[in-house]
Amino acid sequence: MIVVVAPGQGSQTPGFLAPWLEDPAVRDRVGAWSDALGVDLVAHGTVSDAETIKDTALAQPLIVAAGLITAGALLADGRRDLVGGVAGHSVGEFTAAAVAGVLEPTDALTLVAERGRAMADAAAIEPTSMAAVLGGDADEVAAALDARGLVPANHNGGGQTVVAGAADAIADLAANPPAKARVVPLAVAGAFHTRYMGPAVERVAPVAAAAAVQDPTLPIWTNADGSRVDDGRRFVDLMVQQIANPVHWDAVMESFSAAGVTGIIELAPAGALVGLAKRGLRGTPTVAIKTPDDLPAAIELLQAAKTEAEATA
């Protein structure tokens, strides 16, 4: 069983949409989304610099747009039937919701654009940030966080936890990491998935409540606790609450393992989630779709899984 996963914020890099926009049809589609959102996704995905696209209000719709473009190419020509399920990390859940049929693509982008603006405004209330902590003794890491008023925001598995809190505390942790731990500050503009995002939840909730929602037509797993969700409205509600609550990607990967996942394909801007899978789901084949040149390998993985399933049926 092959699952398709969608990355979260911090995976964007300058110009990452450019290879996809060489296709005129894709460029027109992204242009239409830009008009609908009032955000120039074409310009920000091609020529804007790293500091510009670090802005939460821009990064989130950019990442979801890239994931939707990639999914459209990957799952064309009936290949959607070869997918065993989908999941997204943080904002990637909106991509996954669209791929699973919970939200229409334009509705997913409209909702995520409001999410991005609301989270950016919440982050502007006071200086906060996030960092990835890799390795180290769990008790020592926990003590270092407690001493600085920091909290886990993303339980990513594979020995990685993303922590969040006051910007000066994140800087101090990076300068004085726990023994045998490495601390990597992230290209994000706030303490996402923590109490600091409470105002964003209040703002996004009524917008999400008004969105047209369907039950998923593909298996989909939630960041809340890694469980599979069959009710579309509940999935959207969980996505909203996730804004101010930790991401449990470790639990999602445990669910993948329990479901018998045999391969993982990560949508653009890819890399982070297949990296976690290589540590948390050792031996599972992965493909990161960064550019259209990566599509053949992803399609081959899907088709190989179908062939194997038919051979063992």
From TrEMBL:
It holds the Pfam family Acyl_transf_1. Residues 5-306 form the Malonyl-CoA:ACP transacylase (MAT) domain. Keywords: Acyltransferase, Transferase. It catalyses: holo-[ACP] + malonyl-CoA = malonyl-[ACP] + CoA. The lineage of its organism: Bacteria, Bacillati, Actinomycetota, Actinomycetes, Micrococcales. The keyword Iron-sulfur does not apply. InterPro entries: Ac_transferase_dom_sf, Acyl_transferase_dom, Acyl_Trfase/lysoPLipase, Mal-CoA-ACP_Trans/PKS_FabD, Malonyl_transacylase_ACP-bd. Coiled coil: none annotated. GO terms for biological process: fatty acid biosynthetic process. GO terms for cellular component: cytosol. This is [acyl-carrier-protein] S-malonyltransferase. Its EC number is 2.3.1.39. GO terms for molecular function: [acyl-carrier-protein] S-malonyltransferase activity.
